[in-house]
Amino acid sequence: EAGVAQSPRYKIIEKRQSVAFWCNPISGHATLYWYQQILGQGPKLLIQFQNNGVVDDSQLPKDRFSAERLKGVDSTLKIQPAKLEDSAVYLCASSLEPGQGAIAEAFFGQGTRLTVV
Amino acid sequence: AQKVTQAQTEISVVEKEDVTLDCVYETRDTTYYLFWYKQPPSGELVFLIRRNSFDEQNEISGRYSWNFQKSTSSFNFTITASQVVDSAVYFCALFTGGFKTIFGAGTRLFVKA
Asked: Which residues of A touch B100 (CB under 8 A)?
């Protein structure tokens, strides 16, 4: 079974530039997550999609970050304009739609390491 | 407030030693899930275990075992006879109602040959 695919693996940009990350979840997974992981910290949820809809984006800095999930499958996360503090690894994860009273574990991609200089 | 605390930032052991990684959580929800993930140098998080709040049975899987105690809000992870390949960062995570997943800061484990 193919895992969660992310691209690019690495990206270096200057502050105030724009950047986009792409994620292809595991086939059949209805739930898709974007996490931000700053060096030395645990992942922080930025946004969660259930099929096409947004379930939680409370920690997404909406003045500069945006995300969409096309047709309930692939997703892109964009930062415009980037700041130095956006330097982090951006992880995409997917899971099966939660069943009655059960939560499925999330499967993670390898992430995109963003460096803003 | 929901919170996950992994007080041990780094642990270093010699191969074949047992090691326990601590996880303490806070939540007011009565229904929640706890997870452990491993993050090797390659970067992706690898799922290890899920436990729901109504199941306090301890679990053993090979060299891994987990001790869930609701009375102390802890979900500790023990690796028996550690190996070099166990070197990684380990994260404890809490999933609560409202679709919130909160990760701890992680514990970096070094296993020396």
From this structure: 45, 56
Compute the average pLDDT of residues A26-53.
92
Give the domain range for residue B88: 3-112
Looking at chain B, which residue has its C-alpha nearest residue A31?
B99
> Which residues are A35's β-sheet partners?
A45, A91
A42 CB neighbours in chain B (<8 A) are: 4, 91, 93, 103-106
Cβ B47–A106 below 8 Å, yes or no? Answer: yes
Cross-strand pairs, A69? A75
Give φ, ψ of B72 to 5 degrees: -110, 5
A interface mutation test: which of B35, B39, B45, B94 has the most A CBs within 10 A? Answer: B45
What is the separation, in whole angstroms, between the first and last Cα of chain B? 41
pLDDT tens column, B28-67: 988 899 999 999 988 889 989 888 888 888 888 899 999 9
> Candidates 2.60.120.10, 1.50.10.140, 2.60.40.10, 3.40.50.1820; correct CATH number of A5-110?
2.60.40.10
Query: Which residues are paired to B103 by β-bridges?
Result: B93
